[in-house]
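Service request form, structural biology core

Requester: graduate student, group of Dr. S.
Request type: structure prediction, single chain
Budget code: on file
Notes: please return the result as structure tokens.

Sequence provided:
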Amino acid sequence: MNKPIQTRIGILGGTFNPVHLGHLILAQNALEKYELSKVLFVPCAMPPHKKSAALVSATHRMAMLNAVIETDPRFEVSDIELARKGPSYSVDTVAQLHEMHAGAGLYFIIGSDSLGELHMWKDIQKLLTMCTFVTFTRPGNGARAITPESLKMESPWPQRLLSNVSSLHMVDISSSEIRYRVAEGMSIRYLVPQAVETYIAENHLYGR
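Core staff response, request fulfilled:
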């Protein structure tokens, strides 16, 4: 008797301040590469490793995400970190998602720039046993530059993490670049979906 195919759910966390085409391409890469059932976009309430001075409200960030994914059934937005408030720790989020999606395999999606920082994440040893990390290289930050020693973790984790590093359709777009361009009165067309560009303009976000 064949075993039922396990549901696979991707987790893509971040500030999404704002969400841009790079985020969407990353999510699609992960969905296709790992045959995921869906990808959850999880905006954080308070990033523990980033300054949040330029962070717009959760209401605005959720609205931009919802405007983007409403026409794509493969993507969903989860507000679990916003509802929890306080610093957004991935180990707490993954534990909560396991309760919400019992039996599902969870795939935590990151860029290669985050891979070298994992050793600093809260309860990373516990987190590594709760989900599968899948990494996609970003322009200028290829897999060759990442070594087991650079990950600063005990075996077998460096080897397992590096076995799930992929290089697919990545574009060099950042939320900070978009905020800068808006503040300088420059165009963000082709960097964000039309719905996000319109929302930012209508709500006067990221201006000086």
